[in-house]
Amino acid sequence: MLTPSPADAAQAAMAPLPADRPFIRATEVWVPDAHGARLRLASGLYGDMAEFAAVSGAESFGVAEGLPGKAWAEGRPVVLKGFRGSYFKRTEAAEAAGLTAAVAVPVFAGRTLKGVVVFLFGDDAAHVGAVEVWRASQEPGAVMRLLDGYYGAAEHFEWISRRSQFPRRAGLPGTVWASGSAALFRNLGASHRFIRAEGAAQAGLTTGLGLPVPSPTESAYVLTLLSALGTPIARRFEIWEREGDGPAALVDAVGDGGESLFDGAAPPVVAPGEGLIGQALATGVPAASDAFAGAPANAAERAAAAAGFGATVVFPIHSGDRATQVAAWYFRGGEA
């Protein structure tokens, strides 16, 4: 059951702030082909980068080939902060589009790869946010430490993060690690739950989404997306969860609209296979698409479209070989 907090109400009441561009410039989803031998582009949000999108659509990756293939081979998220001279295969097209860094996140159901989500970034002086990869061993007493991350211009916050560690249930990484579930943190700069609150306030970070990243390796991984008002990762974040094989209910949401997307009514449930969120539940495959904007497939998507959202990323979270949660984040028209 979704229970709004006073902080949610305050944030929902705020008018959307303009941004030159989102913190993440492009999001791609690469999935195994019918033979399971190569990764091919299944969906993507490229904004105005049509040439880079065309190059990407003609590309494919084998195991350990390019950034998506490396994440597949290593069974864990991979951060790449420079393309030239690296294993990145689309360097010329990326540089022409102003892209400078990327994070690739594999989505596994058990030991089966469902897809690789790639986030691409471009540096500029006002580019603030964070996409972090945290790792812990399975040994008793282990803690989460930063494996790597991309922070844009938030250099001091990066310095703090590289010197931070989280036991289970502590901070956003430790909370996600302990529960094995997605989590949303609000008002990061004033949150007693967010251990790096002072640094977040200085950097202007406001909202955090934490995602468990199941891995066939012996380590535990957590992905954190930390969004700022000026260069947001997205305009709205949601977490959907189901029990058994039934429909998914909205369990948390933050960002533009709050619960007002549903006109005061209880948020709708989404059946497996119904719309982008339902397809992610049914198949376990992530997606990055603006397809629902033209023909919304369920009540939740109709409400999002009516509120002016034009693109969505859906990220399924697996327990064993089943998708039990879906994290979704939304953009307004022209932002992605």
From TrEMBL:
InterPro entries: GAF, GAF-like_dom_sf
One Pfam assignment: GAF_2
GAF domain boundaries: 51-121
Taxonomy, superkingdom: Bacteria
The protein's name: GAF domain-containing protein
